[in-house]
Amino acid sequence: MESAVRRGPDWARLPVIATAARLLCREFTLQNEYLRLENSILKEKVSGRIRFTDEERRSLAEAALAMG
C-alpha cells in the first residue's frame, strides 16, 4: 500500500503570487492616497460642518467596521 505523499506549496508559483499581491497592495495604496487628497480638497471647499443623514452614518460605520 502506498502512503500519501504530503505536498507543500508550489514554490514555482510563489513569486507570481507575491508579485500580484505587491501590485494589488500598491494599487490600493495609490487609490487611498488619491481619496485622502480628494477628501481634503472637498472639505476646504465646503464651509461649515458637514452633516450626515442616519443612513450615511450607518454606511460609514459599516465601512469602518469592515476595515477594522
Distance between the termini: 50 Å
Q: Give the oligomeric state of the chains in this entry, treating copies of one chain as homo and distinct chains as hetero.
A: single chain
Based on CA atoms alone, the radius of gyration comes out at 22 Å
Which overall shape is indicated by the principal axes computed on the Cα atoms? elongated
Q: What is the total tally of β strands? A: 0
Q: Could you tell me the strand content as a percent range?
A: under 5%
DSSP summary: helix tally:
2
Instruction: Give me the strand/helix succession.
Output: HH
The biggest sheet, with number of strands, parallel, antiparallel or mixed sense and barrel status, is:
none
Low-confidence stretches: none
- The averaged pLDDT comes out at 86
Which structural class best describes the helix and strand composition?
Answer: mainly alpha
Overall helicity: 55-70%
What does this structure look like?
- The chain has a domain at 13-45.
- It has helices spanning 14-45, 54-67.
- It is 68% helix and 0% strand.
- The radius of gyration is 22 Å and the shape is elongated.
- The protein has two helices and no strands.
- It is mostly helical.
- It starts with 13 loop residues before the first helix and ends with a helix.
